[in-house]
Design goal:
The protein is of the alpha/beta class and about 150 residues long. The protein has 5 helices and 6 strands. Strands 1, 2, 3, 4, 5 and 6 form a 6-stranded mixed beta sheet that branches. The chain is globular, with a radius of gyration of 14 Å.
C-alpha cells in the first residue's frame, strides 16, 4: 500500500495555526468539508471529538493520527496538517502534536483504512521522519518527505 495514492496537494495544510485540540479539529473539519461539501462539518468535528475522548490518537514523536469512517468520500483519503507551534494533545509523554495525519474513509473501505493507519503509525515511530516532517516549511516538502519514507518501505 502506497500512501501517495491517498494524499494529494489539496490534502496538505503546511501551516495550521491552532491553540488547542478542539481548534485543530475545527480547522481539519472545515478543510474536509471544503474538499467534500457533502460531508457535514459539524458531523466531522463531533466524530473526531468523540473518538478522541475514547482514545487519544497520539502516536508519539509529535504526531497524531485521528481517523474516521464516514460516508462521503468515494475512497480513503489522508490529510496532512503541520502545526508549527504545536497543540496540546493531552499525550501521555506531555509532548505537543506538531503533525497530524487525518485518515477518513467510507465504511465500505474499513480494511484499507486500517492498513493506511498502520502504515502511518510505523512511519511515526521513526524519530528522524517525524523531525524532518515537522521541519518542512511548505506543502511540497511535506509531500516529498512522505514520498521518500513511503518508497523506503515498499
Amino acid at each position: 500500500m502506497r500512501i501517495e495514492k491517498y494524499i494529494k496537494q489539496i490534502h496538505v495544510l503546511s501551516d495550521v495555526n491552532a491553540s488547542d485540540k478542539p481548534e485543530l479539529f475545527a480547522v481539519l473539519s472545515a478543510h474536509v468539508h471544503d474538499l467534500y461539501p457533502g460531508i457535514d462539518r459539524e458531523r466531522i468535528y463531533e466524530q473526531l471529538d468523540s473518538q478522541e475522548k475514547e482514545a487519544c490518537s497520539y502516536s508519539g514523536n509529535f504526531i497524531g493520527i485521528p481517523n474516521l469512517l464516514i460516508d462521503g468520500p468515494a475512497d480513503t483519503v489522508c490529510l496532512i496538517a503541520r502545526i508549527p507551534a504545536g497543540v496540546d494533545y493531552r499525550a501521555l509523554d506531555g509532548n505537543p502534536v506538531r503533525l497530524v495525519f487525518l485518515v477518513f474513509s467510507p465504511p465500505a473501505r474499513a480494511g484499507k483504512h486500517i492498513r493506511l493507519i498502520a502504515r502511518l503509525a510505523r512511519f511515526a515511530c521513526n524519530p528522524d521522519f517525524a523531525r524532518e516532517m515537522v521541519e518542512c516549511q511548505d506543502d511540497d516538502c511535506l509531500l516529498k518527505r512522505l514520498s521518500a519514507e513511503d518508497s523506503a518501505h515498499v
